[in-house]
Structure formats: C-alpha cells, structure tokens
What we know:
Elements: E1 4-8, H1 15-18, H2 33-40, E2 46-53, E3 56-65, H3 75-79, E4 82-90, H4 99-112, E5 119-124, H5 132-137, E6 141-147, E7 150-156
Parallel strand pairs: 4-5
Antiparallel strand pairs: 1-2, 2-3, 3-4, 5-7, 6-7
Amino acid sequence: MATVSLIPLTRENYRPFMRLKVAPEQETFVALNSVSMAQAHFHPEATMFGIAAGEEPVGFAMLEDHTKDPANADDTYKVEPYVGLWRFMIAADHQGKGYGAQAIELLIAYARTRAPAKVMLLSFVPENGNPRGFYARHGFVETGEMAGEERVMRLAL
C-alpha cells in the first residue's frame, strides 16, 4: 500500500483534488470538493489538504481551525478550543485501500499540533451507510449533540 500524505492545497495543485468524487450513494454525506474549496475562501479558519497515496490524488480534507484566529472563533471554540473536521472524503475508486484510515490519523496528528485545541470535532449525516463506525474506530465518540441534522462526534486530543 502506498504511503498517504496530506498536501496543503495551493493555486498550483488544487485541480486534481477538486475533481475527485465519492460514490453516487455517498453524495448526500459530503459536499463536492469544489464547493468546499469555494467556501474556504470565505472562511479564514478553513485549512484544506489534498490526500495523496504516493503521488496519486485520492481524497480531500478541510479542517475548521480557529487556532489561526481565536478572536473571531465561534462560542463553542471559546468554551472548549477545538479543531473541526469540516470535510473528509476518499474518492470512490480509492476506497477500501486503507487510505482513509491513514489520512484520518494524519489529520488527528495535525490537530494535536494546534494548541490550544483540546478536542477534535466532526459531524455526520445519520443515514444508512454513514461513516460513524469508521470514525469510532479512530477514537471518536458520539456526544449526543446535533449540528443541524448531523450527529456530533469528538476526540480528546
């Protein structure tokens, strides 16, 4: 299996990652990468990564990182500093190869470097086929809270 890495996205390298798509039955779980990239330009707390296996683009992640500008953070951050996993996807033709597991561990390791963040938060759509089990295998636990229609999970850093 190829080694997975997180690639900070720039204007020079974003295109192959923007084109990646999940399987049709997963489309309700995550926004298109192009939508996420557009949103990131209006949210200074957004940090985008391409996920590569060797040299091959296989996925995309976007974190909500208020440690970059704590004065403008939301109330949740002010109570308990966090890094949020805003978007995470592995392209349909690269799923089942262990790339997602490697990538989520790299994202967790990155979050641990973002002092004063104490937890990593994420939310997921609670439909059949959701990624709850995947996140639970990596230490995330459900909080019982909802973010709109999505269930919240947290991981202590």
